[in-house]
Amino acid sequence: MLKLSIAMFVLIAAAGCQSAARHGADVQEAHAGSGNLTVGTVQREIRVGMTGADVAQVLGSPNIVTTDEERREVWVYDRISTDTAYSSSSGGVGILILGAGRSAGASSTTQKTLTVIVKFDAEKRVRDFAYHSSKF
Does the predicted TM-score (pTM) go above 0.70? Predict the structure, then answer.
């Protein structure tokens, strides 16, 4: 009976713990869904000849609106984000009964920048666009 109780305890305590590798996967999964304005959105959606209204519908409001030397509008989207994710677990039951426990965890911090420049012609249609992205 005592052996059965110990075996049950070990199974319950082990089930509450995740490996560090599993925590790492959880952290990466959390990073995958972040962000609205992306390089992919710019590449897929922005085209020469689009109206400003179409660009605003796809990318949202620009951070900066200015004009070039010929007084044509230039929109700048400048985004910076910091993503921090943390995942942890511990064998709490093991701590109470055995006086010691196991814990595992992982954390990750990622910074991303994206700058998009959209240049309009005299008819207020996209004449050119460029982007720069970094992740560190």
Answer: no
